[in-house]
Amino acid sequence: MAIRPERIAVAPDPAGTGRLRAVTYLGARTEYHLDLAGEAIVAVSPTPLPDDPRRRLAAGDPVRITWIPDAARVIPAAESPAR
Prior knowledge:
5 strands, Transp-assoc_OB_typ2, TOBE domain-containing protein, Mo/tungstate-bd_C_term_dom, globular
């Protein structure tokens, strides 16, 4: 399955299954580097406004990761070459 980083939503959640590794502010956008069950994931969104709870996220915080189902693309497994 593949999902574009800008289609992944990140929200603070004490019961969240994701863990924030790092936050990188890049002017108009922010990158969230996440760990989800040992998998590294990057989410990208517009930089949150000062009163947005995401603005207070820090490395190690638990987060909820969501996306619209139509945003996911299934990538078929590659067939092994004939020998």
